[in-house]
Design a protein that fits this description.
binds ribose-5-phosphate, Rossmann fold, alpha/beta, 16 strands
């Protein structure tokens, strides 16, 4: 990275993460001034970034379509000014779960996002623990960084645990759970999750009977959205006399009454990153993102 030619850009919503990254990397920061009008339209204003390497920090959590549109507007301005490079750092990538045609007639929306980003002139996309990094077959470079080691180190330093076991709520999360378990030197177990593709209902089961009695469980997932997957996983673990249940995720969307549901399910603590502002954000992503750019 050429420091003197690089600029970190964000709107106010993403400015705390963006300013930390600009301080860590010792590169300049530009604010994309943002206004949202009464009808929901957004408007941005950004100083000229001609010939600069632009790194846009912009997480697309809900309201996702509005935040995506604001991202498109910032990229468009950078390209219009004649920026050299446009790298988008999108910690929570919206539509990442629409990575397949599950039911005939659907579209793979994550491909549409890639097409739009490419047409605007994006040269690189950096995500964090995105749901399905393998599905980002875009025409420009994509990089998926992981906050799992940072989350695991946070747990190791701050939470006293009794014979912990790391749990993946589904088979898709096994690699994440293994990575987490390696940091805290313990074993992991994957549950089996099935989802009704028409109703969205989730059921979770335990494949083999393994003694879990009084062991503390660390359920590791990429995201908590409605909380239903975590609650179902907790129910099955509690039936098997698990000890305390902790939930660790990169992206805590916590939609509607998810937080209250998690409390009612008897979860002792939730730990997440700040990819989405929330009260459980204990791990700041600026370190993971800055380290990547220091080396590239
Ligand atoms: C799905 O496979 C993901 O990894 C998460 O487990 C899921 O998206 C969480 O959603 P929810 O909290 O609504 O169950």
């Amino acid at each position: 990275m050429q420091k003197n030619n690089t600029v970190i850009i964000s709107d106010n919503r993403n400015s705390s993460l963006a300013k930390n990254i600009s301080l860590n990397l010792d590169v300049s920061y530009e604010n994309a001034e943002l206004r949202v009008f009464a009808d929901g339209e957004s408007k941005i204003r950004l100083d000229n970034v001609a010939k600069r390497n632009c790194i846009i920090i912009h997480s697309t959590y809900p309201p996702i379509d509005q935040h995506l549109m604001q991202l498109f507007m910032i990229i468009y301005k950078c390209r219009q000014d004649g920026a050299s490079d446009i790298c988008v750092v999108n910690p929570y990538l919206a539509y990442s779960r629409q990575d397949k045609v599950f039911v005939d007639g659907e579209i793979v929306t994550i491909n549409l996002i890639g097409r739009i980003l490419a047409s605007l002139g994006t040269t690189k996309l950096v995500t964090i623990d995105t749901h399905s990094p393998g599905s980002l077959n875009y025409s420009f470079e994509t990089v998926d960084l992981s906050a799992i080691p940072s989350l695991a180190n946070y747990v190791k330093k701050n939470i006293p645990l009794n014979r912990p076991i790391v749990i993946s709520p589904d088979e898709g999360g096994i690699q994440r759970a293994k990575k987490f378990a390696a940091v805290i030197y313990t074993d992991m177990l994957s549950l089996i999750k099935t989802r009704d593709r028409f109703t969205g209902d989730v059921s979770i089961s335990l494949s083999d009977q393994q003694p879990l009695e009084n062991r503390d469980a660390l359920i590791v997932d990429d995201m908590i959205s409605t909380g239903n997957s975590i609650i179902k996983a907790t129910e099955i673990l509690k039936k098997n006399n698990i000890g305390n249940v902790y939930v660790i995720c990169t992206h805590a969307l916590l939609l509607n009454d998810a937080k209250e549901k998690l409390v009612r399910a008897g979860i002792k603590e939730v730990i997440s990153t700040n990819s989405i502002p929330n009260e459980f954000a204990k791990v700041d992503l600026s370190g993971v993102i800055s380290n990547y750019f220091s080396d590239h």
